[in-house]
Amino acid sequence: MTAKTTDRDRDWAAALAAANAGDGRAYARFLQSVTPVLRGVIRARGRSLGPDQQEDILQEVLLAIHAKRHTWDPAQPVAPWLYAIARYKVIDAFRRRGAGVHLPIEDFAEGLAAPEADPTAARDSAVLIGQLDARSAEIVRAVSLAGESTAEVGARMEMSEGAVRVALHRAIGRMARFAKGERE
Amino acid sequence: MRTEDLIAELAAAGPAAPALNPRATGLRMVMAVALAAGLFLLIAGPRADLAAKLVEPLILVKTLLPAMLAFIALPLALRMMRPDTRLGGRALWFALPAALAALLWIATFVTTAPQARFADVSAFSLAECLGLILAISALPAAFALRLMRRGASTRPRLTGALAGLAIAACAATGYSFFCTQDNPLFYLTWYGTAIAVVSAAGAALGGRWLRW
Fold first, then answer.
1. Same domain, A66 and A89
2. Are A18 and A88 in the same domain?
3. Interface of A with B in 4-33 (CB under 8 A)
4. A43 vs A52, A104, B140, CA distance in Å?
5. Which of A28, B36, B89, B180 would bridge B11 by S-S if both were Cys, CB 3.0 to 4.6 A apart?
6. ipTM greater than 0.90
């Protein structure tokens, strides 16, 4: 280890090493310890986004850390690895949300459910949903149209709630791109 | 979903996948391309006069230059599997084979009679050289990119290009034992083209497969 190793790095390294070996309590401690740091990074970068969206991005970063935790080299400090993942996923998240394009799920669901909604809008939504793959389409219909909770959908589709949330976000993003006339 | 709940859920997921092992990954990649090149040499056979020709420096270069390229590209590609890797100055190593190839190309061009320079170039010889290096590279390169999906490169296209470069350079090294085109103008140009094509394909595929 060439970099100066702070106490925090030592704590993180010990916790993550134990976590990767299967120690759930150490893993929870690690994630809780990095969360405020990541939240700060996201807030600094995403001032234009609401707190809800910032929290969504934070959760995407946590999911990415989870999925790629085996790529940390125990001989190296944790912080550069952690920041590299956070940076990659934050840039990705901002790119997917587009510059200033926000599409909160709640607004989407209300617009579709409202009785006075423009029928062409509803048809357009159906067309957009129809362009998704079957699994994504089912998640969007269940959560945005039928009003099911992500937990219910997850239980039914045998996915974790986090995975449902991520799939939903990606699907909504794809639909936004379809609406702008792009194709996959 | 509250972040606290997400953390609790993730923490209950059990141990991580086996730790990333770039060395073992690299070994599997080299074995894949060695298998492809070995199979090709087994079927097509090395050139009949291989032992006599390999002592000639200009012919030995045909084997050593792609081998050097592979030795540089493979470790860099493997390093890129971790998110916190920066290539930095290590990419400068590529200047060495590039400079050697450029010098040899120019020197040969100057010292060869004009009508002899590109005398070996025919549609058949090009298709043979390019086509066979590409054919030997294709499956091992795809396999290498599949292996690298376990990593977390933050530069998917660059990582894919480096992997394609490493595999194609290995394939060209193996192919050189078969190839009877000993004119540096020919092999530098067309080996180089084949390696560049596989690198470009690696970049394109990396942009799709190595995202996460």
1. yes
2. yes
3. 19-22, 24-25, 27-28, 31-32
4. 11, 18, 43
5. A28
6. no
